[in-house]
Write a structure and sequence with these properties.
It is elongated, with a radius of gyration of 40 Å. It starts with a helix and ends in a 7-residue tail after the last strand. It folds into four domains: 135 residues, no CATH class; 84 residues, 2-Layer Sandwich (Threonyl-tRNA Synthetase, Chain A, domain 2), CATH 3.30.980; 284 residues, Rossmann fold (3-Layer(aba) Sandwich); 73 residues, Arc Repressor Mutant, subunit A. It contains 23 helices and 20 strands. The chain is α+β, with helices and mostly antiparallel strands. About 9% of the residues have low confidence. A hairpin with a 2-residue loop joins β19 and β20. α11 runs parallel beside α18.
Length: 668
């Protein structure tokens, strides 16, 4: 019985009528809780007197009573193993004393020798000891000072002298305020003791967490969730705000106390999605993507090196999709280019940052770009999401700081990055980039990566994604602006999802989603050229760069794709049955005399135009070398021209002997 229950019982006992006739009833009522020990003492005396009449002259009765006394005392000691040591010892001594007196009275008589004195003194002392114990159970100081019956547990885990306040008990959740002894311990000690508290309570380590008081170094709350309510799989229930704005929360799962798991992209700004293989990262991505694609004012750029294996059903709803490392590198550069263009447009229309009103036609004079103050009527600007799936693949091809500049500048431009990867470690992503991704949806990870996935204060509060690994698919922590900090260390689980939901969202909400605005499209085309202007059109369903290639199997069981050529383009005109030509001394490479271009600049521009027309915006040095013989130019000439184009800004080195082509002015 807790202190609160004892106090309530005490108050009820004090209540009653104050009339003289009620005094006797009150005294009897107060005496009743203390009568059982005295009734037991009287019962032993009567039973001993009666037993003497039956077994006074029986030697066998003496043996039986002695053995019975020992057995009863041992049984009392065994039965008290689940109670406190003091109660166990008190109970065993009481039974031993009573059974010993009963045996002596049965064999010698209750009035023989010292038995009467032992009964009167020993029986009274034994009964009074239980009365004192009952009185001491009521401790009003425990309520006022915060001392608790759980003091023994706290001592075991190294938090002796910690005071607990009034415990709040909810369904499957216990919250206990605590105050550590001043000058002896801090909240860091509580953080280190969480695994031992979980062990003492026999619950998983993720079931115990704490919330420190931001205004105190020694106060906070312990939160214990004894039962795992996330074991039950919940399928995606459908869009939380169909046709609404992306500024409204995306509901992607539930917390262990039943609350909805909500992510608000404009507040989260940039999101890191992380989880090992088998942790449920793909389904979590589907939850987020489906929610996005059912909103009216958002445009998605998707980089998917897995070529649609997981998110292929979403390709038709994305404004731009790339599936190669080179394409991802161009998309990153285009994202950088659209940021200042979008910021300029928002500033001209009186927006300090993107908001849903910026996505509609600008008919409000408060948001006009005209100098006369009249409504400008400009088309709206959708929110932009750049989704980089399996980003570790992309970062291997570009600088590991590729996302840093975007992450630091995109907030005011109405754009968010979603970076998805299995391991976010210092070997795959720079600390600057990680610091620029303020939000994280962390599923099960390797224990060594937990510190890179979640902030240290969240881990200290009890979050432990390393305990899940791939054994709890969908279990996750969400750290994001717009989410209460107390929920950052609270386990949650994303919905179970299916590609069918993506297909449905793409099809049913095609008329709801707004197209990309001209400002974003023009800025992207200025960097990506035909790679962007010839991109997939969701309305027309045209092919995307490196688009979803559906695997097919040939008779030889080799995996091919329906866009994969079976013959090299340069060999298409060769007849495999024709005789080989006779040997000749003519040079194999080199253009005929008189075919060399007169203008070297025009020659290299011809090569660049061929690349652009083919949609190849990232090229290597060797790609130029393949054309130098056709133009009758030496390799040294190509190297010199590449240097000139780099200085003029027509080519931008991207590392690894690769260059990104900066296109001429191109309309989207």
């Amino acid at each position: 019985m807790g202190e609160k229950d004892i106090e309530q019982q005490h108050e009820e006992q004090l209540k009653g009528a104050s009339k003289p006739s009620a005094v006797g009833a009150y005294l009897l009522h107060r005496a009743k809780p203390h009568l059982p020990p005295w009734i037991g003492t009287a019962g032993v005396g009567l039973a001993g007197s009666g037993a003497h009449l039956m077994w006074a002259d029986s030697a066998w009765a003496g043996v039986g009573l002695t053995l019975s006394s020992v057995a009863l005392t041992a049984a009392t000691w065994w039965a008290g193993r689940g109670t406190s040591a003091q109660r166990r010892l008190h109970s065993a001594i009481t039974v031993a004393a009573g059974s010993l007196w009963f045996t002596g009275a049965a064999l010698s008589g209750p009035l023989a020798g010292p038995l009467p004195d032992l009964y009167l003194m020993g029986g009274a002392v034994t009964a009074l000891s239980w009365n004192v114990r009952m009185v001491m159970r009521r401790n009003p100081d425990a309520v006022t000072t915060g001392e608790s019956s759980d003091k023994g547990l706290l001592e075991k885990v190294g938090l002796a002298r910690t005071k607990l306040g009034a415990v709040k008990v909810e369904p499957n959740k216990v919250t206990a305020p605590y105050a550590l002894p001043a000058g002896e311990a801090t909240n860091d000690d509580v953080s280190r003791s969480l695994p031992r508290i979980a062990s003492a309570l026999d619950v998983p380590t993720t079931a115990v967490r704490y919330r420190p008081d931001p205004e105190s170094a020694r106060k906070g709350e312990l939160v214990i969730v004894p039962n795992d309510m996330l074991k039950e799989i919940i399928w995606y229930p459908g869009p939380s705000a169909p046709g609404g704005s992306v500024a409204e929360p995306l509901v992607i799962g539930v917390y262990d106390d039943g609350r909805e798991l909500r992510l608000t992209l404009p507040q989260a700004i940039h999101l890191l999605v992380m989880g090992v293989t088998g942790s449920g990262k793909t389904e979590a991505a589907m939850d987020v993507m489906v929610e996005i694609l059912t909103r009216r004012d958002v445009v998605v750029w998707l980089s998917d090196p897995k070529r649609g294996q997981d998110l292929g059903e979403a390709f038709g709803a994305c404004d731009w999709v790339v599936t190669t490392q080179d394409g991802a590198a161009v998309m990153i550069e285009a994202f950088k280019a659209v940021i200042p263009a979008r910021q300029l447009w928002l500033g001209q229309h009186g927006y300090r940052s993107w908001e849903p009103a910026a996505a509609v036609r600008q008919d409000d004079p408060a948001h006009t770009c005209r100098e006369d103050g009249a409504a400008c009527g400009c088309p709206g600007m959708a929110y932009l999401v750049g989704w980089f799936e399996e980003a570790a693949n992309t970062l291997r091809a570009v600088d590991d700081d590729a996302f840093t500049g975007i992450a630091q500048e995109a907030r005011s431009a109405g754009a968010s990055l979603v970076v998805s990867m299995q391991r976010a470690s210092g070997y795959q992503i720079s600390t600057d980039t990680r610091a620029s991704l303020p939000s994280a949806l962390c599923l099960g990870v390797d224990e060594r990566d937990a510190g890179f996935a979640l902030p240290s204060d969240v881990l200290e509060a009890g979050a432990n994604p390393g305990a899940w690994g791939n054994k709890r698919p969908g279990y996750c922590y969400l750290v994001s602006a717009g989410v209460d900090e107390e929920l950052w260390s609270t386990p949650s689980r994303t919905f179970r999802n299916d590609p069918v939901a993506l297909e449905w969202a793409v099809r049913e909400f095609a008329a709801v989603r707004m197209p990309v605005d001209d400002v974003t499209a023009t800025a992207a085309a200025s960097v990506a050229g035909q790679l962007y202007t010839d991109r997939q059109s969701p309305a027309a369903g045209t092919a995307t760069e490196g688009g979803p290639q559906r695997a097919a199997r040939t008779e030889d069981n080799d995996v091919t794709t329906d866009t994969e050529p079976l013959v090299d383009p340069e060999d298409e005109g060769i007849d495999p049955e024709a005789e080989l030509p006779e040997a000749s001394d003519a040079p194999m490479f080199g253009a005929p005399a008189g075919d060399e271009p007169h203008d070297p600049r025009e020659a290299i521009e011809d090569i660049l135009r061929e690349f652009e027309q083919a949609g190849r915006m990232v090229v290597q040095t060797k790609d130029f070398m393949e054309h130098c013989d056709r133009h009758g130019r030496s390799r040294a000439w190509v190297s010199g021209q590449l240097g000139r184009l780099g200085r003029e800004g027509r080519l931008v080195p991207t590392g690894g002997h690769k260059y990104r082509i900066v296109p001429a002015l191109t309309s989207a």
